[in-house]
Structures are given as C-alpha cells and as structure tokens.
Amino acid sequence: MNKQLLSIFVLFLAVFSCTPRNVITDTGLDASTVNLPAADFKYLNTKTKIKYKDADYDVSTTASIRIKKDSVIWMSLTPVLGIEAARAMITQDSMVLLNRLQKEYIVYKFQNLSEKYNFNINYDLIQSMILGGMPIENDGTDEIVGSKDHFIVKQQNGPFSIDNFINKKRMQLERVQMSEKPSRNSLTLEYDNFKSMRAFFLPLSSFVSLNYIEDDQLKNAEIDIKHGKAEISEQTLSFPFNIPSRYERR
Questions:
Q1: Which of the residues 26, 213, 217, 219 has the least number of beta carbons within 10 Å of its own beta carbon?
Q2: pTM of the model
Q3: Range of 216's domain?
C-alpha cells in the first residue's frame, strides 16, 4: 500500500505530457484575454474517490480534502473499513506525507523537488491542479493557437512543454498535456463534470495519466479522481496534523 499512497501525491508533482494534437494557428488572439476565472473562496472541502492503477497495483481509496486558499491543503486517505491509512499536509514551502500503515513519514521540500525535476514546483502549482486551473498561470505573453473548440495556451518551462486546452464557449480548462525532452516522460490531465462554485468552476472528475521511464522501460500509471461532494465553507476548517514521536522519517 505504501507505493500507491506515495504515487498518488507524487503524480501531482510530475509535470510532463504528450505531444500536442493537430491545431490551426488562430491569428489575432490576445494572450492576455485568454484567462480562467479566479477561484474565489477562503475554505473548500471535498469528499473524494481516488483510484490508482499501474502494472502492479489497482487500488481505490476515499479521501477527505480541505483547502485554505493560498495557505494549506490537507488530505486524509481511508482505503477500507473507515481506517485512515495516510494523511498529508501541503503548505507554502513543503509537503508532508504521514503513512499510518508503515508508521513513517516523508517530507518533501519544494525547493528540493524543483531542483530534482528541473521544474518550479510550489504550493500554487498543486493548488491550481486540484482546482482545475493551469499549472502555470498565463502571464499574457504565452502563445495562443486555436482548434475548433479550444484555445490552446502553449507554454515552455525549461525542458518542459505545456499545452492547456481551454473550452472556447465555457472558458473551462478541459485538458493539460505536458512533455519533457529529450526523455519520453509524459503526463496528461483531463478535467470534466464541472460544478459552479460561485465565481469559478470546479471539475468534479479528473483523470491523470503518466508515462515514465523506469529501469529503461516505458511504464504507465493512472489516477482517476471523482469528487462526490464539494463545498465552500463559510466557517473556519481545522487541519489536524501531528507526527507521533515513534514514527520514523524516510
């Protein structure tokens, strides 16, 4: 179970993708006008089903997710019988995963992760991906091309190419494709079933597909995320998190 739990969180950090689909250049587009509505809330909580699948594992878990916008992301994973297996706390500088099954915890510093993956990984990136936003915000200078139904915001960050597919009519991000060169690492994010949350739309369904090289072999891992309940809270939410002294740091 340890491998799957770690993979669920690490996949949010792996920013890669597939080659872009055939598109037609759309002249006269102003990049500064192709922006998604800002997520306007203070607290958000969800009840979520997460399914993880790769060549070795096919497991499902229930997750409770709480967010204090721009500050804290808290997750609790409960695979079976209502017994919590893992808990995570993501803050502005780090992510901590508490594995109750193995009595251990792991600390990921964003600075170290950024250096490892050669990509700027931070809190804003993870929050944006959970909320269905672009991994990197459009700064008004990105290249915009168009297909029949989408604006495609094309971005480059070091060795990573990122294509964001935004529905022209609804102005909702429906797909993100990322790729790393010269490796064959690739990741696709697909968002669907949007729910109006006041000033923004939250995708209740998200699908993540990661292709990566391990031991000189091309492998695939998938995560299917479905929010059964998502609410903006007017009341202050708690984020209980403490590491027992007997737990070993990995």
A1: 217
A2: 0.78
A3: 2-244
